[in-house]
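#lab-general

N.A. 3:47 PM
ok so I finally got the sequence cleaned up, no stray characters, all 228 residues accounted for. can someone with queue access submit it? mine expired

B.Y. 3:52 PM
send it over

N.A. 3:53 PM
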Amino acid sequence: MANGKKDYYEESLREISALDPKKKPTFLLHVCCAPCACFPLLFLCPHFDLTLYYDNSNIYPESEFYRRRNELEKLLQLYKRDYGFDIKLIEPPYDHEAYMKDLRPHASDPEGGERCHLCYRKRMEEAYDYAEAHGFDYFATVMSISRQKSSATMNEIGSELEKSHPNTRYFRSDFKKANGQLYGRNLRIHYELYNQLYCGCEYSLEEGKKRLIREGKDPETILPKTQK
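B.Y. 4:20 PM
back already:
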């Protein structure tokens, strides 16, 4: 711990070092997209029997949800070819309107504010519920790798949820550390993966449009088309 802050990367290394090398524990990993998954999969697969949970009904429009899912499937095929990893993928049904009921009261919140924290928690809790119900040994999310997301926030949510999921251990981690973010970026480029330009929800899509306009770019030619 440095400057009073928890080092979640070091915690992840200690957790791995304590594992029985003769047996891989089962691990359910919530994943939001292929670029964010690149490094965490390489980090975890040598030590765990990994299953991915693509639970992201926040993503808008629906075509974008499936585009990101397809890129994730592409990555899993490439990792099986190149590393021999046999990673399973679970995809709950997409239901954007039901998902957004809790978020719409926070429509005016700034990006990164309470609405986003609620969104992180909803997805993590739904995935953690699945992990607990299906007997997984560990649970975590790849979202700590994102520059726009606080690793401390992700781990605080996970640690809180662990209290109500006694049979599945929360894996404290910070995938940004040890050049994980740079490594993931290089893997994304190497595998020519689609790199989305907004977090996923309709609010972040609007923010993405404004950002592109400020940069002198036409969002209609870059971002996915939507129909209200």
